[in-house]
Write a structure and sequence with these properties.
Elements (H helix, E strand, L loop, with lengths): L1 E4 L2 E4 L8 E6 L1 H5 L8 H17 L2 E6 L7 H6 L4 H25 L4 E5 L8 E2 L2 H9 L3 E5 L9 H11 L4 E6 L4 E2 L11 E2 L1 E2 L1 H6 L7 H9 L4 E5 L5 H6 L6 E3 L1
Parallel strand pairs: 3-4, 3-8, 4-7, 5-6, 5-7, 8-12, 11-13
Antiparallel strand pairs: 1-2, 9-10, 12-13
The chain binds guanosine-5'-triphosphate.
Length: 249
């Protein structure tokens, strides 16, 4: 069987077109309707969906933002020193990762959490080669604490880790169904892109992801799919190469 991916016809053995993917979850998604913290129902739904992906046999790495608990950038605009605020944000991602690990293990999914900041009483420290071994052994590998550096977002972490572990794609799971030419909440005429190049994203100043993350993906020819995680089954569709969300190439 063959399938067209990024305009190229490739031969594939199964309905799923990727072997190793990096899923970037927004912290805000975990908050659900309560708007803050971690909603147990949302977490359970996410764990069930990830379990389905794992059962297909795809190697899955995950990064989670921390915006449901603390936003570094917001902290700094409120007067906190930026680096200090970012460290708090990184710790917030660790909490989300541990919660996700718990939810996944409750539904029988083997996981490992690896932190960019050493906290060995809590979880493993990120070591690239070890992360790859975990993935090869079928463990959902969750990357916590961003890159370990202030001034970098979780999107940049996703792009960096995806390059490091040789993932074939970054799946950016969000609350919207793709990339638009303007904010669809504010502009009812906003146009959604099915496909767009990284260069177009940069030149048009589309702000769905920061430019550091975009540049990293572009330089490493790493495709990205932006899709709405709120629609059950979307993740499986993306992984089957169905036209869901926006593909950035
Ligand atoms: P393999 O050797 O590839 O099978 O990996 P493994 O992760 O099963 O083996 P290991 O003995 O390294 O880890 C056993 C358990 O301890 C796993 O749940 C790890 O996540 C956990 N673990 C390993 N290193 C650390 C650490 O530095 N801190 C914490 N808190 N847990 C760790």
């Amino acid at each position: 069987m063959s399938k067209e991916i990024w305009g190229v016809l490739v031969s594939i053995d199964s309905t799923f077109v990727y072997n190793r993917v990096l899923l970037k979850l927004s912290g805000e998604h975990l908050a659900g309707d309560q708007g803050y913290g971690i909603d147990a129902e949302v977490l359970k739904g996410l764990a069930d969906e990830i379990k389905e992906i794992k059962e297909i046999g795809i190697e899955l790495a995950v990064t989670v933002g921390g915006g449901n608990i603390f936003r570094g950038l917001k902290g700094s605009t409120d007067g906190m020193e930026r680096a200090q605020a970012d460290y708090i944000g990184m710790l917030a991602t660790v909490m989300n990762c541990l919660a996700l690990q718990d939810a996944l293990e409750k539904v029988g999914v083997d996981t490992r959490v690896m932190s960019a900041i050493e906290m060995k009483e809590v979880c493993e420290t990120y070591i690239r080669r070890r992360a790859i071994r975990h993935l090869e052994k079928g463990r959902v590998t969750i990357f916590a604490a961003g890159t370990g550096n202030p001034f970098f977002t979780t999107d940049t972490t996703a792009a960096l880790r995806a390059c490091e572990i040789d993932a074939e794609v970054v799946l950016k799971a969000t609350k919207v169904d793709g990339v638009y030419d303007s904010d669809p909440v504010k502009n009812t005429q906003a146009r959604k892109f099915d496909r767009i190049s990284y260069m177009e994203v940069l030149t048009q100043g589309l702000e769905f992801m920061d430019s550091t993350a975009i540049s990293l993906c572009m330089e490493n020819s790493l495709p990205l799919v932006v899709f709405n995680l709120g629609v059950r089954g979307n993740m499986q569709k993306v992984l089957s190469g169905e036209p869901v969300g926006t593909t950035v190439y």
